[in-house]
Design the sequence.
């Protein structure tokens, strides 16, 4: 793998912070959609939704990252990713653009970062105005009480 | 792969499977003519088809096998295990060859001369004496050597012999008419005329293309549908008779076709989608009045349903298909291991989705093998353990609440906890300290962990440590569960439960706490509308905060769905609602196994056909959901799993359910009993059997004194302690206080009650065990849920400490207490007598029924005296007494009968069968006296 390989990321904003998700992992971007609450599920699971006949499990990324709940839930969007053949949608505030970034510019997480963030982030890019935290989907979906790993 | 070849492989594999099973059956029942005919026919077909496709190696083996079978069929050879073994061996070789064939599409190199020789030995070696004449036989049979018969003048006898050696339509070639031209026909080969005749006779579809009739060398048995024509071909003017037979065959063949499973899967997915779309359309139209869509939609709905049902049927297969190989496996095992094994299969016709069937085939085979190998002991060991020398492996399959349950039971040695522990430690799966805290069940479950095998020696059958963990993960992969129950020395039972995922089921849509859920219709017994305020016919009553419902004189435990799911609309909102609209609730009566309970929900909607989709892996640990689906309106809905709810709602369902069974049995066996109904600490009625109450008293509150923190009253010149039912129950401030007086030999106790209500006579069926101290449980008495007071508890509470050190030992001054075994099917009496007896200084063990008691005997437990009920289901007290006397271990132990029937006849019969004494059930003093008397006599005699 060459060092100067270019990776493309979809940027999303959650609670004012910009995150990047590898573009090839993103299958869909959805607006507000009717969610079915799942009782007894881990708190990070926001519910399930119907995406063209497929049942998609919805993950509340804010909870996963230990952020406050969004004030106006109605504006929430989600991006659909696939993990081990299962679709998951990640609740986010808004979707930005697609950025092409050189992997050599990626910096490792600052040691002072919240452990929950460090857990799911593979690194950080410095863009012109903001910092971009790269999310690792498989780690994001691997939280306490989930059995993704085992699956 | 060539279509023809793949078809051949499927068919031949199938046939070999049948042959396997049939051979085993034949071995057990050698005289079964139809069995051997069937086997012969199948092997013959295999041979024929092999020849047709140009597979000489396969053909040679099949041919040699067929020879042996021919001898058996003609009665020239006896069916012995050796003969069967060698034929099975031949089948195995064929199987191996087929496997390679499947992979490489070519017959592997090599030859099987050794096996063929042995087969020939069996076929001719023993029968030589009998059919001495036919010298050329060996050659005839030996296809591989391709020995040509030099003699053209074949004698009639030789022909006969040849015919017998390798019968089949082709052999007709050797028939007299053709004998001159039979120049150097190899056996199994056909002359041109014959071939042509066969062609005319059997225009099977496979025939047309590949067969080349011109080529005389064309492999014999072109007549694939050989089985139809053997007779016809044997006679020369076959051509006339044959067409009919051939026609019939092809008609039959046309009635079923082989379809690629993938195609079916695709169809299934599409139908599922179709069903969902139909539901969506129906939902849309439902809101409108009559319009032009209604009728066509109804038709569409109908057709969809039928399509769906039809397609489901194509996917269903009896589980017996997965079991067909087992008899053979067990047979081989019993040979290899020198064990005698009976395989019993129940419910082979139980149908399940073929996809699921495929997936459980291997795990099942493995488990049966395990049971036979590890589970069952050798005959000597079995005999030594007092069992039959033949071990049993029992397979059972049945449907239950949308699941298929498969159990595999063996009556072998069971799991050895110590061995497992050692192994666990050895493999570092757990520490010693951890093991200490584990229940036997938990330890047993270790055998399903990776890298675990208890067998000390690795046999070629099992024991390589890649066993149960793989089985478990395979079963869990399809959403199933596996449970294990084992008793050392008695055997083990594995229970596999497989849900019918990927199936379309009818579900009831309910609402609870503002969320909708689906409940599979199959587990719903009925729906009940109930209220908490008595406005409706059905009322939810509370027993110590557990809701119950009286449903046709049975107590139905209830669970609130919102509590189970921890939904927010719990108590407050319900209470709010109840004020607004009179709290109407719906109860879904659900059955899980033998356990019936009610699920309380807010609303019930319609039923809808749903396609069960598995939940995301992230949620798979939630046992309360069996899946999820998309409803007609496009929303996602979770499907509730009643089993999950049952196990969430009460940890001890098993005991609950056994209680219920007990109660049910009792309902038939128990007589009516007089009960005293009273109220104490709350409005709910409480009951106590009248027979236990010595007196009812009303005492002046003034006379109650307090000594040592205990309320007492002077009563008949003695001090009688007073106890209250619970802290809510207070002694009245003024006036008179009703009390129930219980006596136990010279001890007397007063139980403070608020009010004595009534005395009623009713069946006493304790339907729900209680975990409240002082209560045995709840029963329906006079149509009301009533708590039953545990008198023994209060007696003990009162006297346990007081008299604990008192020198009041049951009999004599023996230091070790006397061991009493109490056998009574009624939990009520067991609960009542145990504290009584233990207060009196006996050490009491109980058994629910004679069988359990006899099990104790098996375990080597000894008792000084047995107290047994007479009226018990299955085995009554008289039979029990006879059983006890039969075995010398307990023969000396005196038995006291306990019965509500105390006629002279009963006494006589009791003494006859060996009861030492006979006591009326409610006469506690008599029982105590009898006990100590009997023990004194017995003790003196010892």
Sequence:
């Amino acid at each position: 793998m060459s060092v100067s390989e270019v990776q493309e990321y979809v940027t999303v904003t959650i609670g004012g912070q910009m995150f990047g998700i590898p573009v090839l992992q993103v299958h869909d971007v959805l607006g507000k959609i009717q969610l079915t609450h799942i009782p007894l599920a881990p708190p990070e699971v926001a519910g399930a939704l119907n995406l063209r006949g497929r049942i998609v499990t919805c993950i509340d990324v804010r909870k996963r990252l230990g952020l406050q709940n969004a004030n106006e839930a109605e504006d929430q969007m989600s991006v659909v990713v696939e993990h081990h053949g299962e679709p998951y949608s990640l609740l986010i505030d808004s979707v930005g653009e697609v950025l092409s970034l050189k992997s050599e510019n990626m910096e490792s997480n600052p040691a002072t970062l919240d452990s929950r963030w460090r857990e799911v982030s593979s690194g950080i890019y410095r863009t012109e105005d903001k910092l971009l935290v790269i999310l690792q989907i498989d780690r994001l979906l691997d939280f306490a009480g989930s059995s993704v790993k085992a699956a | 792969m060539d279509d023809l070849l793949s078809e051949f492989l499927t068919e031949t594999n199938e046939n070999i499977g049948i042959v396997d099973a049939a051979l085993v059956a034949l071995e057990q029942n050698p005289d079964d003519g139809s069995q051997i005919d069937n086997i012969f026919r199948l092997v013959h077909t295999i041979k024929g088809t092999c020849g047709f496709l140009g597979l000489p190696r396969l053909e040679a083996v099949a041919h040699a096998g067929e020879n042996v079978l021919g001898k058996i069929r003609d009665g020239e050879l006896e069916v012995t295990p050796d003969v069967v073994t060698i034929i099975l061996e031949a089948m195995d070789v064929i199987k191996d060859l087929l496997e390679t064939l499947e992979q490489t599409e070519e017959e592997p190199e090599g030859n099987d001369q050794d096996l063929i020789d042995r087969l020939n030995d069996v076929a001719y070696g023993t029968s030589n004496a009998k059919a001495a004449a036919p010298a050329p036989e060996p050659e005839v049979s030996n296809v591989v050597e391709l020995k040509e018969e030099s003699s053209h003048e074949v004698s009639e006898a030789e022909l006969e012999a040849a015919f017998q050696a390798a019968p089949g339509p082709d052999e007709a070639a050797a028939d007299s008419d053709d004998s001159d031209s039979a120049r150097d026909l190899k056996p199994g080969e056909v002359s041109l005329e014959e071939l042509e005749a066969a062609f005319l006779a059997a225009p099977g579809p496979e025939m047309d293309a590949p067969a080349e009739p011109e080529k005389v060398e064309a492999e014999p048995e072109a007549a694939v549908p050989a089985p139809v024509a053997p007779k016809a071909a044997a006679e020369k003017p076959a051509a006339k008779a044959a067409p009919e037979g051939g026609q019939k065959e092809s008609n039959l063949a046309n009635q079923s076709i082989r379809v690629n499973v993938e195609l079916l899967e695709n169809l299934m997915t599409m139908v599922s989608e179709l069903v969902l779309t139909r539901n969506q359309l129906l939902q849309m139209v439902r809101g409108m009045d009559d319009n032009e869509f209604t009728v066509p939609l109804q038709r569409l709905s109908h057709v969809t349903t039928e399509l769906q049902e039809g397609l489901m049927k194509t996917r269903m297969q009896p589980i017996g298909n997965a079991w067909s190989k087992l008899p053979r496996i067990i047979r081989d095992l019993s040979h290899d291991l020198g064990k005698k094994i009976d395989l019993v299969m129940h419910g082979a016709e139980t149908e399940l989705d073929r996809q699921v069937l495929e997936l459980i085939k291997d795990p099942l085979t493995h488990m049966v093998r395990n049971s036979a190998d590890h589970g069952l002991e050798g005959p000597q060991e079995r005999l030594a353990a007092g069992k039959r020398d033949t071990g049993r492996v029992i397979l059972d399959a049945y449907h239950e609440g949308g699941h298929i349950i498969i159990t595999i039971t063996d009556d072998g040695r069971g799991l050895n906890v110590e061995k497992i522990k050692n192994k666990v430690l050895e493999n570092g799966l757990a520490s010693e300290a951890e093991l200490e805290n584990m229940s036997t069940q938990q330890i047993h479950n270790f055998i399903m962990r990776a890298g675990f095998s208890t067998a000390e020696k690795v046999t070629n059958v099992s024991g390589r440590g890649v066993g149960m963990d793989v089985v478990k993960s395979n079963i869990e992969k399809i959403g199933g569960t596996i449970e294990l129950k084992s008793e050392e020395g008695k055997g083990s039972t594995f229970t596999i439960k497989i849900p019918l995922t990927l199936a379309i089921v009818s579900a009831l849509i309910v609402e609870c706490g503002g969320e909708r859920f689906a409940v599979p219709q199959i587990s719903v017994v009925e729906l009940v509308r109930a209220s908490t305020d008595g406005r409706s016919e059905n009322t939810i009553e509370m027993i110590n905060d557990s809701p119950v419902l009286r449903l046709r004189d049975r107590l139905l435990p209830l669970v609130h769905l919102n509590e189970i799911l921890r939904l927010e609309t719990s108590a407050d909102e319900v209470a709010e609602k109840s004020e607004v609209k009179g709290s109407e609730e719906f109860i879904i009566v659900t059955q899980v196994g033998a356990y019936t309970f009610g699920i309380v929900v807010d609303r019930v909607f319609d039923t809808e056909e749903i396609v069960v989709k598995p939940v995301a892996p992230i949620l798979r640990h939630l046992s309360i959901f069996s899946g999820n689906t998309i409803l007609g309106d496009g929303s996602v809905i979770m499907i509730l799993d009643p089993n999950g709810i049952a196990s969430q709602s009460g940890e001890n369902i098993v005991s609950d359910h056994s209680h219920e069974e007990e109660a049910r049995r009792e309902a038939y066996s128990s007589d009516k009993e007089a009960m005293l109904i009273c109220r104490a600490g709350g409005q709910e009625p409480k009951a106590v059997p009248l027979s236990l109450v010595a007196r009812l008293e009303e005492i002046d509150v003034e006379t109650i004194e307090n000594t040592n923190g205990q309320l007492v009253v002077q009563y008949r010149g003695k001090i009688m302690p007073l106890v209250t039912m619970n802290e809510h129950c207070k002694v009245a401030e003024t006036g008179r206080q009703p009390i129930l007086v219980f006596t136990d030999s010279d001890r007397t106790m007063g139980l403070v009650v608020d009010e004595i209500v009534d005395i009623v006579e009713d069946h006493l069926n304790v339907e729900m065990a209680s975990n409240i101290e002082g209560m045995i449980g709840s029963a329906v008495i006079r149509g009301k849920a009533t708590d039953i007071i545990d008198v023994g508890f209060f007696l003990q509470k009162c006297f346990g400490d007081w008299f604990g050190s008192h020198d009041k030992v049951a009999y004599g001054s023996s230091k070790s207490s006397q061991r009493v075994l109490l056998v009574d099917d009624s939990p009520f009496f067991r609960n009542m007598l145990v504290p009584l007896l233990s207060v009196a200084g006996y050490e009491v063990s109980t058994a629910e029924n004679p069988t359990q008691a006899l099990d104790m005997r098996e375990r080597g437990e000894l008792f000084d005296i047995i107290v047994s009920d007479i009226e018990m289901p299955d085995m009554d007290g008289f039979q029990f007494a006879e059983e006890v006397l039969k075995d010398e271990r307990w023969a000396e132990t005196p038995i006291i009968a306990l019965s509500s029937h105390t006629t002279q006849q009963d006494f006589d019969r009791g003494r006859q069968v060996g009861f030492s004494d006979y006591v009326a059930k409610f006469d506690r003093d008599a029982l105590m006296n009898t006990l100590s008397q009997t023990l004194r006599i017995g003790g003196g005699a010892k």
In short: The interface with chain A takes residues 273, 276, 515, 565-567, 613, 615-622, 624-625, 628-630, 634-638 of chain B (CB under 8 Å). The first strand of chain B starts at residue 316 and ends at 318. The domain at 504-651 of chain B is CATH 2.40.50.180 (OB fold (Dihydrolipoamide Acetyltransferase, E2P)).
